[in-house]
Fold this sequence. Notes:
One of its GO terms (biological process) is peroxisome fission. Helix content is 71%, strand content 0%.
Amino acid sequence: MEDSHPNSTTIPSDTASHPTPQSDAAPKPTPPPSRPTLIQKLRFLLLRYLAKTAGTTDRTLVRLSKLLSTPSGTDVLLCTTSYTLTLIHAVLSRVLERRLASIATEIAEKAEGVLLPGETLIATLPAPTSTKVIAQTVGSSKALASVISDFRIFVRLWGVLGLYTWARDTYQNPLPEDASRKEKILRVLTWTAITSCVGFQILENGAYLSSKGALTTASWTGDVGKAREDAWWLWSSRFWAAYVGVELLRLGVQRYYSSPSSSVSVSQGDGEKEDKIQREERVKAKKLEKWLWWKDLASNLAYAPMTVHWSMEQGLLSDWGVGACGIVAGGANLADAWRRTA
């Protein structure tokens, strides 16, 4: 006798035989989520801003530390800061002069009908707060710019050692016999630049040490010593001007001999991964080369009038001109130094 098997092994629940009665009432709608209040929104925005600011500040401080960890980075930062202070001093000095002239004119107009012929008015008046702030800023900006300039000259005292290594490396790497005309011209310009820098550095060192009283021989004391010091300052600037001129010639030679075929074209076709990486690297190298060329051009074009200014006994530029040109020259180098810290 065969056993009978059920068609299903599912155990029926009690609700199957006793259905739950359904209510005729419609289900209540789900209430919408509560919207954040204005205070909560402001708190969220503030926290997000603080987090973003903290991250940005951290990256900036790390890059600034890298910049100041090298002598060249420190110099370009101080250079830009010094010329910025020079421009601030020039601008605020003009503003201060106009304010004082306006106050003096106003007092003179009021006293004109009171004073008798031949009388003189001497008065001490409290200056407005804004005028005091401007006068204090004028004095402090000039003093700080002078300190920075003195420091930059001091740390250049041993710059001759760097010039020696530059000349040594150039001498130990002669051009091949089949060198191109461009390479030969650039090599001549390199030796000319080295010579002008050596002359500039030696003369600046002597003039600086004399100004600090470190040179006490008969030829460096008295009126004779002062005249020699002034002459060495002038000639050091003239050698610097010669170096700037050589740099502009170098940039011109590089641009003249740069052929259109040297530009890198990026292919969008399929290729090996290594080939694509190499093409991207060549494109980056070409962009960097162009950036450095324009950076050097901007810096040297800005330095050119400054070197001519300091090469003349009477000068050429006002403080406005020196500050503006210095900001461009230092800012171009600072932008490149800051790029390298990324």
